[in-house]
Design goal:
about 200 residues, alpha+beta, globular
């Protein structure tokens, strides 16, 4: 006798929960290729724009480097703005002191997270995260090959060097979103509905 099986796939659970796979389940935007380092204090504020791929923000990280070891380890402030650049609405700012020992310029990237939990994003909208500091100690890693299509470097240095073409540059950055609480509940309910349906039909799970 053949035994039928019942497999509750993710797309089916999404349908049962009344959701689409495009939003509500969290994810990560990651640009982890560096080709140079820029001193924050010189380009202050310096940051990266991105397009939100989900709605519940968790953390934003840049890859930081030590460019002037003998200088004070001043706090770094990361601010999140709506839109491209700093002309939009300021949504939140987080200040923290980084570890005193950071990778040197050209070393493997070290991402450090800033906690933006509790901030909601609009799916598909553009945002910009920038950092500021008073000390020349810390820099941020960047890439010159336009590796992230959803955004670009933003910086304030008048001469623009080395960012003579900001649209072709990206910082090394990471944006993490988390599932909305309601999404997890709906998926659980969808899974229970599938189990009940399978058992009532006499189908093995």
């Amino acid at each position: 006798m053949k035994t039928k099986s019942c497999f509750a796939s993710v797309p089916l659970l999404l349908l049962l929960g009344g959701l689409t796979p495009s939003a509500g389940f969290g994810g990560t935007i990651l640009q982890n290729v560096g080709s140079g380092d820029a001193q924050i204090a010189v380009y202050d504020p310096i940051g990266q724009s991105f397009v939100a791929d989900d709605v519940q923000l968790s953390t934003i990280a840049f890859a930081f480097s030590d460019m002037n070891l003998g200088n004070p380890n001043s706090p770094i402030t990361m601010s999140l703005y709506a839109g491209t650049g700093v002309g939009g609405t300021l949504l939140d700012s987080v200040t923290q002191t980084l570890p005193f020992v950071l990778p040197g310029t050209g070393a493997p990237l070290q991402f450090i997270d800033f906690n933006f939990a509790g901030n909601s994003l609009i799916l598909g909208a553009t945002y910009t995260a920038v950092v500021t500091t008073t000390s020349p100690k810390v820099g941020v890693a960047y890439n010159v090959n336009d590796v992230y299509a959803g955004g670009q470097v933003f910086e304030s240095y008048a001469a623009g060097d080395p960012f003579h073409n900001e649209a072709g540059y990206d910082l090394a950055f990471r944006v993490v979103t988390v599932p909305e609480p309601g999404s997890a509940v709906l998926v659980t309910l969808g899974g229970l509905a599938m189990l009940i349906r399978c058992r009532r039909s006499g189908v093995s799970v």
